[in-house]
Structure formats: C-alpha cells, structure tokens
Amino acid sequence: MSKPDGSPRLSRFRGLRGRVMAAFVLGASVVAVVLAGSVYGISTSYMESQRVRTVERAVGVHAELLRLRLDDPRISGEQALDALHLPTGYIAILHRDRRWSAVGVDDGFAPLTPPVIDTADAIPSTATRVRLGDQPYLRVWSEVENGSVLYEFAPLRELEANLHMLRTILLACAVLAVAVAAALGAWAAQRTLSPLRQVAAAASRIASGEHDLRLPRAADEDLATTVEAFNAMVDSLQRRIERERRLVSDLSHELRTPLTTLTTTATVLAGHRDELSERPKAALGLLVEETSHLRGLLDDMLALARAEAGIHRSDLSPLSLAELLTHLLAGRDTSPELLDVRDPGMVRGRRMELERALVNLLANADRHGGGLTGVTVDRDGADVKVVVDDAGPGVAPEDRGRIFDRFVTVSRATAGTGIGLALVAETVAGHDGTLRCTERPGGGARFVLTIPACDDVRHEIANKRAEPLQ
C-alpha cells in the first residue's frame, strides 16, 4: 500500500528493492567516476607529455639545421625556414638581428615579443600553451646562434579532438556501467526478495486455512534459519489451533448437557405456572428468560469459536445466495416481495455457516432495526452482493465499525448477546468476503455483504443443464 504522497510505483522503489538497486547504482557510479577520471587524467598527461617531447625534439633538430644553413651568408632567414619542411599547421618564427622571419602564418600575423633570454644559456624553454586567434598551440623556442632564437608553434587541435573523443567515450562507458549496474541491481533484488515473496505467499495460504503447508528446506545456510523459524512458528500455531478446537469440542459437550437440562427443567416448571404464587411465578419467568438468553449466547459463542478456529474450513461447495435467502425468508413467514434478486450469482461457501450468518443479519434487522424492509442480491464486479435494509433509527457513523466486535450492542432498548454480528463478520471473512454497515436512503441501517463469485461453477451448471440426456 502506497503512502499518501506517492504512487504505488514510487513507494515500491522506496522499499528494499529500491535500496538494493540504489546501492548497485551508487557503487557503479562511484567506480565509473573514479575509473573514468583516472583514465582521462593519465591519458591526458601521457598524450600531452608525448606531444611536448616530440615538439621539443623537433625544435632542437630544427635549430641545428638552421645553424648550419645560416652559416651561408647568402641564405636569408625565410629561405632557411622554408628548407625545414615543417608539418602542416606548424608555425616557425626566427628572430635574428632584430628581424622577424616566419613560415606557416598568415600575412596579418604579428608575433609576440620574444622573452628576454640569456644568450649564454642554450637550454630550450619549457613548452607553453598559447592561443593564436581561436586555435590552441604549443609554443617552444630554442637558441640558434649569436642571439638568434627559433620559435615553433605546434597545433593542438588534433590532440584536443582526441581528448574530446576520449571524454565522450569515457562518459558513455560510465553511463553504460550505471545502466548495467541498475539492471544487475534489479536482478539481484529480484533474487534477494524471492524467498521473502515465497514466505509471504506461504503465510497467505496458511492464513486462508492450509495449516499443513510448510516451506521446503533451503540449501542456503542464510535462508535455512528463516525457513526453520517460520515452520516452527506454523507448527506452534497449528498446535494452538488444535487446542482451541479441542476446547470448543469440550465446551460444546460440557456446557450443552447441563444447559439443556436446565432449560428443560425451566420449561417443565413453566407448565405448572398456575400452581405457583406470584413471587415464584416472577422468579420462574426470569429463569426461563435467562436460560433462553444463555442458550442463545452459548450457541453464538460456540459458532464464533468454530469459525475462528477454522473448523471445517475446507469443505466449500457451490451455492446460490439467492436460493438460500429465499428459503430463509420463506421460513420466517416474510413477504417474498422483500427479496429482490437481480443476479443470482453462485459462490463457494459452507452452507451452514452462511445460513447462520444470514439468519443473524435478518434477526438483527428485526430485533434492533425496527423490522426488515428489503433484501437485494446483485453482482458487484467479481463479487456477489447481498444488501439487507431495515426501518430502524440507523447506526451512528462512529459505531458502524465497532458493531462487528464481540459483545457490542448499540441499542440498549433491545436485548442481544452482542455476538451475532461478530459471528457474521468472522464467517464472511472466512469466505474471503467483506461486511460493512452504511445508511439506508430514506433512513435506517443498511448492511452490505459481499462474497467472491464463482462464474465457472455457474457456467458448469448451465452447461450440464443444456446437455441432452443419454
């Protein structure tokens, strides 16, 4: 059942399954980020260092070539630079005798002022990233001779394109890893929660009456303890139910006999009422009344105990609630017009228990509701619905839930055991049905009883009736 502020789907992901999936996704995300960052950092450092070393070696070689060519006074700086045959995209600038010579640049290129260098220092400069226009370059310089300096600008577009591709690939791999982790998390949650679902299904079947059902032994040591504890709990529950059944049987035997004797004695004494004086007559009247009330209370308590203990819980048979109500109303000498059968749907139930429950509902309408005004049998989706209306004052909204508890009597004007409606509720629950109390339009109380229909039974009966005799 979902929370008020969330849908059932969202509440499902807030549970154990969601936490398992979140753990997998979080772990995969952390690992993916660490690995992607490490791979990108190492790859970037390696590729840039390789690029720097390549450019530095090239500028050193080019400086030596220029030194040899510039020994010839007939060769100008531009001619010496052209003879280097630089790769595409490279820029070479020679600063010699306060003059600038450049190759690989546009006509509008204005080189930066070269840094002040110590002509006695022949060590090449550290490579530096610069931007010429909107393009990235790696600038390296080296002294040629007599204060002449060679500047080379190596393009970094290819390197940055490779790094961009590497970032994209790593990001895609990280997303894929998280997606795979989510799938693995869902699978792991499914496998992890499967034993819990089996336990829940077994518990539901046991609650519905299959008291002999047990969970099979588990090969997993972690689950074996849970399975053994569950089976031990069910064994204890079954033993308790058996004790309750024996108690019900003992009570039925021990209490019925003396109560029958007491009732019979009171009846015999009532036959000689005229021979008694006034005070013994009054006492006899109270005795007859109380023994009758005690007998009804005992019958209701025994029936309720049997229903709660699940005695004869499995002998279900198809029956029609409409036919059952027709029989009950005919036995009560009630007008048949009170019964309105709109759909005589079939249900699976125990005839004696359902008959007693319906008798209690009808008796409640007569005793506490000012008389029965109508009974309706209809379909309500997958259920067969029985509606019982009375002409009484109705039931207050705050009492409509608790009147199905034991020993609760809302009306003090009429006598009752306070167990009749509790027995009806227990019987309906034992048939997987529902029972509720509402207000009847026009005044009075309305009791709505629903029991799951079994259309397959109705169809089987209809087919059998349609088959020709052999």
Give an account of the 3D structure.
- With 470 residues, the protein is α+β, with helices and mostly antiparallel strands.
- The protein folds into three domains: 207 residues, no CATH class; 88 residues, Orthogonal Bundle (Helix Hairpins); 152 residues, Heat Shock Protein 90, CATH 3.30.565.
- It is built from ten helices and twelve strands.
- The strands form three sheets. Strands 2-1-5-4-3 form a five-stranded antiparallel β-sheet.
- Strand 9 and strand 10 form a beta hairpin.
- Helix 2 packs antiparallel against helix 4, helix 5 runs antiparallel to helix 6 and helix 6 runs parallel beside helix 9.
- The radius of gyration is 48 Å and the shape is rod-shaped.
- Keywords: Coiled coil, Kinase, Membrane, Phosphoprotein, Transferase, Transmembrane, Transmembrane helix, Two-component regulatory system.
- InterPro entries: HAMP_dom, HATPase_C_sf, HATPase_dom, His_kinase_dom, HisK_dim/P_dom, HisK_dim/P_sf, Sig_transdc_His_kin-like_C, TCS_sensor_his_kinase.
- GO terms for molecular function: kinase activity.
